């Protein structure tokens, strides 16, 4: 019945979509680019005092960009409260002066946040497409409180706020208006040496009081693309790209407290580090970024989880060097930056012999340096080269009787390299070539991946074809082994065609990943050996109707086969929709998916794939969420979902069921202080899965345990599955206090616990056959993780920062009788377990050659 209800929902959604598409009264030009506006920039010879007051005479002489068009919540109408923006320039800087008219001073919201964070506030932004290729651009924003945000726009990275530039701004509130003044040095952007420049240009204003956003040159949500919908900035003459050379040296100091007091180790250690980041503009198009002896000890802690899946956990990248200006290197998703400086490849193979113990086994590879060169020519050719080098990593093992120590290599000296060519084409199109390479010294293997990508859209930007083909190559021996790697050559391809503009869009795609395709040395892949095809559609209604501001929906059907052997894997029907109510800005939505009987070939962890699989009964999921208005002091996000499974028809077994919910309130005390809390809870009852290894075991069954040995004696190739209940709870509390627009303090605390209780066990045979077995070994386990990250940050000068960070981290993995399903017992256990503590201070000072060079007489 549950499946029937969801199928009816899907049919209803498709019917509504077709009807809405047919009866739509939207104007015929809703998916046609708006006319391009032009603005003349005015050259000045006198200086501008950056104070948020446009009292210099030059501001009154400049052309005015006004008559903004609303983009949300109702696309199309002109703004009621005028915005006036002017642009000046000289030999070194671009100046933007903006006046935002309003009803009264009380209508101008002005929450303070940390840099690059939008809060409950108004802002003004300028967008620049300096090569006018209609694909790539810059964005600079400033809020009423003077908080700066900057980002890059590209087909690969979308809107990337990890990019940071050094620029300056001031704001002020004058009666019923607020004023912003910005100075963007040419060293912060890239452009050609043409004597007369033509740049893409747009401005954006957010008026938070009414949740409204406006653009100077209209941006239509039904049109594919963003940069291609900007106007133009004219009148830029005789400006030259400056020498872009800056040095940001750093010094840092750490005090680390280790709770363990093993013989020969100290609980408290100190360390001092020094290095530098260098940025050099090779020419007007290309920039070299290098970090020498980098220190990433202050980045936010990873959200550790209990991983029961056959695939690795993908963590977010928090290191600024690997998040800033990397849009070219992320083309094709072949680069997973956490591989650089990752856990050594031999970390888990270190073993202590008799009368030995492991004294030291570094979990991370320390980098010696990292360098990237990237840019785009005036002809639209993007070029990127990334290179990083890591040193040898050793584990130290000590003989407990003699005290002698030996070292074991866990990571050889390695070089990581990426090269990218990306040619922008007309009509929001491109072709790209990417190569990634890992070279390791010594007797092990090297890896190389080469990929080509393309996207071609028609002149009306209404349809597009896209695709990619990738070849992976690995040569050499497994680390510390005599066997050659067995996935030496592999490939992947994908091709699709889609309708990309209008209220109704759709697409079809097909792809193959061969059984030996492996990009994981510098990328990430969750299972290869796959043939997939799918069809999807979206219907979006952007105009207000009834009692809502908009309506967004999606639906699709995916199907996949195993590549070798070519056998069925799974089918998935999915869909969802969301809308926002007009009066109270309450957002609600739902999602669903329906799956017939599927085969999971990866869960048994048996190679080669094809013989063993876990049979997953037909199942369906329904989820819903709601989010209240963030303008209110108290706002709330809620979500919930349930997945039901058809009863097992092969033998008696309780039905599976998955339930989860999340609640996340946020409270803004005032414009400086806010709190956010999130609770996520889920339970999976009667889940069937591979019995994960215990600590120190290589597989689910180990002959050192009598119960396991009994099964292995009778069935040497046995795979043990367990019926289990998994309960996971995550709590995150974050408090932020922003002293000024350049100084902030953030404290984030996270507690995570996941408990697994096994109810019975089955032996998996080829062909998906399961046989219940009498197995009494206790395989229950509980994982707890606790983290505190406290960060004080002060941008005391443009590009210069002092940060003080305190980290507290601890985790426990409880097995068998130690495991407990009680949350507060786990919380108490986690808090009382000794934690690692680290306090660090880091000082960055930005030195710009243009500012420190000797002045000519």
Automatic annotation (TrEMBL):
Signal peptide start and end residues: 1-20
Domain (DUF5916) ranges: 241-853
Entry keyword set: Signal
Protein name: Uncharacterized protein
One GO-annotated biological process of the protein: carbohydrate catabolic process
Limits of the Carbohydrate-binding domain: 50-209
Record-linked Pfam families: CBM9_1, DUF5916
Single Gene Ontology MF annotation: carbohydrate binding
């Amino acid at each position: 019945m549950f499946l029937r209800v969801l199928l009816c929902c899907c049919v209803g959604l498709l019917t509504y979509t077709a009807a809405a598409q047919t009866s739509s009264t939207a104007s015929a030009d809703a998916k046609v680019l708006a006319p391009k506006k032009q603005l003349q920039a005015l050259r000045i010879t006198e200086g501008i005092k950056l104070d948020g007051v446009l009292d210099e005479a030059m501001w009154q002489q400049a052309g005015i960009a006004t008559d903004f068009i609303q983009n949300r919540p109702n696309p199309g109408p002109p703004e009621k409260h005028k915005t006036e923006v002017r642009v000046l320039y000289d030999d070194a800087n671009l100046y933007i002066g903006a006046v935002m008219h309003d009803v009264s001073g009380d209508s101008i919201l002005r929450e303070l946040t940390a840099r690059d964070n939008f809060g409950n506030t108004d802002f003004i932004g300028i967008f620049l497409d300096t090569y006018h290729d209609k694909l790539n651009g810059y964005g600079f924003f400033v809020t009423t409180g003077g908080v700066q945000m900057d980002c890059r726009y590209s087909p690969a990275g979308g809107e990337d706020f990890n990019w940071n530039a050094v620029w300056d701004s001031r704001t002020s509130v004058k009666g019923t208006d607020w004023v912003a003044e910005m100075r963007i040095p040419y060293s912060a952007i890239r452009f050609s040496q043409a004597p007369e420049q033509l740049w893409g240009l747009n401005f954006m204003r957010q008026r938070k009081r009414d949740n409204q956003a406006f653009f100077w040159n209209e941006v239509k949500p039904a049109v594919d693309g963003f940069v291609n919908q900007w106007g133009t900035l004219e009148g830029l003459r005789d400006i030259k790209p400056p020498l872009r050379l800056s040095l940001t040296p750093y010094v840092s100091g750490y005090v680390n407290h280790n709770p363990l007091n093993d013989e020969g180790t100290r609980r408290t250690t100190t360390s001092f580090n020094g290095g530098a980041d260098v940025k050099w503009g090779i020419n007007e198009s290309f920039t070299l970024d290098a970090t020498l002896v980098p220190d990433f000890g202050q980045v936010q802690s990873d959200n550790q989880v209990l991983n029961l899946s056959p695939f690795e956990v993908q963590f977010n990248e928090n290191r600024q060097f690997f998040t800033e200006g990397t849009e070219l290197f992320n083309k094709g998703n072949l680069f997973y930056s956490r591989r650089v400086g990752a856990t050594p490849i031999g970390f888990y193979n270190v073993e202590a012999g008799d009368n030995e113990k492991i004294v030291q086994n570094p979990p991370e590879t320390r980098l010696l340096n990292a360098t990237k060169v990237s840019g785009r020519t005036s002809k639209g050719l993007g070029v990127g080269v990334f290179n990083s080098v890591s040193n040898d990593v050793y584990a130290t093992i000590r003989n407990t009787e003699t005290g002698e120590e030996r070292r074991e290599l866990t990571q050889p000296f390695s070089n990581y390299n990426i090269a990218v060519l990306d040619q922008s084409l007309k009509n929001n199109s491109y072709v790209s070539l990417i190569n990634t390479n890992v070279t390791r010294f010594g007797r092990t293997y090297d890896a190389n991946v080469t990929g080509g990508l393309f996207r071609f859209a028609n002149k009306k930007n209404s349809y597009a074809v896209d695709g990619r083909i990738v070849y992976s190559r690995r040569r050499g021996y497994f680390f510390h082994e005599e066997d050659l790697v067995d996935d030496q050559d592999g490939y992947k391809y994908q091709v699709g065609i889609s309708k990309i503009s209008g209220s109704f869009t759709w697409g079809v795609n097909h792809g193959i990943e061969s059984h030996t395709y492996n990009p994981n040395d510098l990328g990430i892949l969750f299972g290869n050996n796959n043939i997939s095809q799918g069809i999807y559609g979206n219907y979006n209604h952007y105009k207000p109707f009834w009692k809502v501001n908009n309506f967004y929906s999606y639906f699709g059907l995916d199907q996949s086969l195993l590549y070798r052997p070519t056998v069925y894997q799974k089918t998935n029907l999915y869909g969802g929709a969301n809308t926002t109510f007009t009066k109270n800005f309450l957002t609600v939505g739902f999602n669903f998916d329906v799956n017939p009987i599927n085969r999971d070939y990866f869960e048994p962890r048996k190679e080669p794939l094809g013989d063993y699989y876990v049979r997953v009964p037909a199942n369906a999921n329904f989820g819903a969420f709601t989010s209240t208005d963030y303008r209110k002091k108290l706002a709330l996000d809620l979500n919930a979902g349930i997945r039901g499974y058809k009863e097992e028809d092969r033998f008696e077994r309780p039905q599976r069921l998955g339930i989860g919910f999340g609640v996340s309130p946020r409270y803004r005390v005032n414009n400086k202080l806010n709190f956010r809390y999130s609770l996520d809870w889920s339970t999976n009852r009667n889940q069937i899965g591979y019995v994960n290894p215990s600590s120190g075991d290589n597989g689910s069954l180990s002959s050192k345990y009598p119960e396991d040995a009994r099964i292995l004696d009778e069935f040497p190739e046995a795979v043990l599955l367990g019926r289990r209940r998994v309960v996971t709870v995550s709590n995150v509390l974050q408090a932020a206090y922003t002293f000024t627009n350049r100084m902030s303090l953030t404290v984030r605390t996270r507690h995570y616990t996941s408990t697994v209780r096994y109810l019975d066990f089955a032996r998996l045979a080829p062909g998906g056959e399961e046989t219940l077995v009498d197995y009494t070994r206790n395989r229950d386990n509980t994982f707890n993780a606790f983290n505190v990250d406290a960060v004080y940050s002060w941008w005391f000068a443009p590009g210069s920062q002092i940060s003080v960070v305190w980290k507290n981290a601890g985790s426990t993995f409880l097995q068998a009788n130690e495991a407990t399903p009680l949350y507060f017992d786990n919380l108490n256990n986690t808090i009382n377990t000794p934690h690692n503590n680290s306090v660090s201070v880091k000082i960055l000072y930005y030195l710009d050659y243009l500012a420190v060079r000797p002045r000519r007489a």
